[in-house]
Structures are given as C-alpha cells and as structure tokens.
Queue: 4 jobs
Job 1
Amino acid sequence: MKFDKLYKSIATLGFIGYLPVAPGTWGSAAGFLAIIFLKPGDLWLLLTSILLFILGVICSDNAEKILGKDNTHIIIDELCGYFVSVLFVPKETAFLAAAFFLFRFFDILKPPPIRRLEITIPGGLGIMLDDVLAGVYANICLQIYMILSKMV
C-alpha cells in the first residue's frame, strides 16, 4: 500500500505507459533514445539490464495487482527487452533501429517459447521474461548479421 504509487510509476515508466496508442512501442522507444543519447558500454548496459530486470519483476508484479493482469500500461519490460536486444551490438543508429524493429517484431509475434512464458509464468517474472526473450531473439538476429557481414 505504502509503495503502490512508486511501483506503478516505475512499471509504467511514468507517463509513457499511459500514452494512448501502443504503449509498449513507446517503452521500447524510450530505450532507443536512452541508448542513442547515453551510448553506454556493453558492461554498463549488461549490469543495467540485470538491475532493470530485477526492478521490473518487483515493480510489475506489484503494479499488476493494482492495474490488473497483463495491463498494457506496464512497459518496464519493453525497456529491459530493448536493452537486451542491443547488448554487444555497435551503438550505431542503424543497428539500434534494426534492434528496435526486431525486438518489436518478436515481442508482438511472440514465437515459441515466448508466448508460453507469458502464459505459464505468473506475475512480474512472467511479464519481464517474455520481453527479455524477445530481446534475446532480436540480439541473435543482429549477431548473425554481424558474423555474416564479416564473411562477405
């Protein structure tokens, strides 16, 4: 009760989660802008992603109790998933944009086992895991592209 407003604010990334159209995409866009402006190193980004995941599990679990199951206003998972998609990828606009579209593609399409994670794991852990896995899928695509582009 005491921290409800704080949990909700963090899980929805403040006002961003309340934007009327496609709040998840706006959450990913927040991650895109953060990476563009901060240009973090991969170690910093990895540590931030881990901390963001832990914070996201706690806050989205509590926010879900307030806002309802799988509420679209909860978007901290999209921020974390996007950060995962750009780990160990050049922080150049083209790669960051490709990561954005790939992450959104996998997050929306939810290929196996992403949808299963979302359905079978309850609460904040389930909310965060499916987006992290979508970020991993996007990252794998970019890693394959980088390997293939070096071969040509």
Job 2
Amino acid sequence: MNRRTLLIGASALGLAAFGGGAFFLNRQRQAEAEAVAAANPAVDPALLVRPHSPSFGPEDAPVTLVEFFDPSCEACRAYHPVVEEIRRMFPYQVRIVFRYTLFHEGSDEAARILEAARMQNKFEPVLDALFEEQPGWAVHGSPEMDVAWEIAANAGLDVERAETDKLFPGITGTLNQDMADVEALGIRQTPTFFLNGKRLENFSAESLIADVRFAVENA
C-alpha cells in the first residue's frame, strides 16, 4: 500500500466519521424535538400571534418564533442579540414575533415607549437602545423612566409626539391583550419562546439557535 492509497483511505475514513457524526447529531436533535413536542403540545395560535404584534420576517415564513419579553428583564436583554442573530441567519425562513410580558415596575411605561416608537417607525432602534442601556434605567424597585425616555430620544424618537401617542387607546388595548394571553398561556418568566406554536423549555442561546435551525431545515 503506497502513501497515496493511505491518504485516500484516511480521508475516506474522516469523511465517513464526519457524516456519521452529523447523522447522529441530526437524529439526536430530532429525538429531542419529538420529546419536546410530546411534552408541550402546540397551543392555540391565536394566543401567540395577534394582528397588532410587532414582527420581523415574512408573514408566510415556514418557521415562527414568538418571544414573550419584558423590556426591563435582564435575561431578555441577554437573549436579544441571539434573536437578532436568528434574524440575520434566517431572514426569509423565520418570522419573529414580539409579545409584551410586563412583570416589572416600569415595564408598562417602557412598552408604551416602544409602541409610540412603532407609530413613528422607530420600534427597532428604540428597542435596541432600551436593551443596550437597560442597566441605566431598569432599576428594579426604582425604575428611571426619565432616563428611558432620554435613551429613546437619542435613538430617534420624537418624544413630544410620543408623550401624547403613548396614551392612545390602541396601545392600552395591545398591552391588555398581551397580558391576557400571558395569563392564558401560564407564562411565569421571561423570555419565553414558542417555536412553531410549541413552548421551548430549558433553552440556552446555543440550543435556541439549534432548535430554530432544525425547524428551518425540516420545514
């Protein structure tokens, strides 16, 4: 057996091992997804996505990721870049929907800032800014909402107009409906994610991306 034959043989073994590993991981991911599906049956879609819900990605995307989030929640801040990465990775395959889950003092005001920003087509930059500078305003027990408004203004929000718009009855209706759905779904912590109608449990940043990737590849 010459050197060339040995190299070809080694390469073939390497490829076989890689293929076997990928196959095993895919089967493992499928088994995990089936276990999650069995433990968490799909819920009523109407409770997850409302016509008023802020969303990104095609409405007819094969995969929908719904995040129940609180603007004052540190974990939601930590997961925000992960959600942004999912948007970047799957711009046409995944629709991301945001639902308000107002568990902290000051969260109602923060959500009104975001909804007022949405009326000015500034939802995304204001959301990014509020999360980025969250430690400066979302102080538990003593939120600094004046600081939150300043952050939103620096992100491009017309504050004078928003101060009026935040009282728009439609915004109150949005927040009330979201919290009614939070209660109906039994959500007790944020962020809570639903992938194609099924709640994700005990997720990490890596597993969230992996679950979305698996859903995309099997849509």
Job 3
Amino acid sequence: MININRPEIKGSCMLQSAVTDDVFLALSSATRRQILQHLATGPATVSELAAPFDMKLPSFVQHLSVLERSRLVTSTKQGRVRTYEIAPEPLQAAEDWLSGQRRVWESRFDRFDDYVNQLKAKESDS
C-alpha cells in the first residue's frame, strides 16, 4: 500500500490532482472539446480553429488560453500566425483518474453481486 502522506508522494499527488483539475475544467466546455477534436487531426492556426464558431475572436482566444493553461495544447508563433497543436499527455491524467474510479465501482458491483448470489443461495437452501 502506498503511503500518500510521504512528502514526495503527497507532492506528486497534489501536482497530479492540479493537472487533473485543470484538464477537467478545460474539458467542461463544448467549444474547447470541439477545438481538441479539430486539433486531433493535426496542428491548426487560430483562424482555422475559429472558423467553425460563431463567436468574437477575443472570446475564442480565451478558450484557447484555457486549453493552453491546462497544457492540453501548445502553440507556436511564426510572424503574426499562431499555430496550436494538441498535447495529449494531460489527458492521460484524466484517463487515469477515470480508470481509478471505474475500478472502485466495478469492485463495489462485484461485491454486491457476490452478496446477492449468497442471498439467493441461502434462499434456495431453505
């Protein structure tokens, strides 16, 4: 069993938690999820990313800023053109958290299933 109170593990857990919080915050917006879907096909400029959305550019750029702060995307600027690219590593933190939750619930359902089967067995014995 891992002792999460050890300073190096506690710091790592807090960092992981902060990354996961940022990722879920970024993913809470349909616009940002659509941007990520677009970027999953390859890098794109701000104007390419903004084209499908009916929104003012400053508002759209705020969505890009949230994605960049959460480290889900990176950007490079060449002249006046900024190009964004997806950075999938933080998604792994969210996936790890979800997988952990799934394991907890699957374990609970397995124990519940065992309990129900024991009750059925007792009922059929009597």
Job 4
Amino acid sequence: MNIRAKSFVAALAVAAAFNVSAFNAPAWAHAFLDHAVPAVGSSVQGAPRELTLNFTENIAPAFSGVTLASAAGGAIAKGKARVDPSSPATLHVSIGRKLAPGTYVVRWHVVSVDTHHTSGSYKFTVAP
C-alpha cells in the first residue's frame, strides 16, 4: 500500500470513529418528559383541573407548550402553559373546562435552556 492509500485509509478510520462516537453519545442536554400529573397512561377518577409536566432539564417558556385533545382529535380548551418559577423544569397548564369521561391526548413541545428541542405525547383517561 502506498502512502496515499494509507492516508486515505487512516482518514476513513478517523471519520468512522467520529461518526460512531457522535451518533451514539447520549443526548444529555435534551429536556425529556420525566413524569406528569395525570400520569402517562393513567386512569383518574374525576376530571383534573390542571396538567403538570415535569422535564429532565429546565425549559425555556417562550418556546414550550402543550395541547390537549380528545382521543378523537377534538381540541380541548386550556390555559396557556406556564413554567413554575420555583421549578423551571415544570410546566403547568390549566384545563379550561371539566373533562368528560374518556381518553385524552397531551402533546408537548419544549426547548431546553440550552436550546435543544424535544416533543412527545401521552394519553390519560378520565374514568366514568
């Protein structure tokens, strides 16, 4: 193998090592949903008056929000999501009306304070 071929192979090895480490590294700086009230997948007795979503990182309120919909997709009126000043990783959302028994879908999107965007959804059920 000549020098040029050895250099090419070495460059490929460095690039491969970078790709493996860059794409397999955990995304520690992203805010993911840690827990919520009502809890993910739960069935609750009585309609909740508020959603509380706790994330793994502090979030930027200006770029974070929540939607609430019925299982059929109908939007449910709710208040504006607000970050808890004493816990900047927590979003509170007032529900604008009493929820009827049924399944509801919460969709969230947040930007962590280090500007990484994440989103997700979960369901909970209000028992009859």
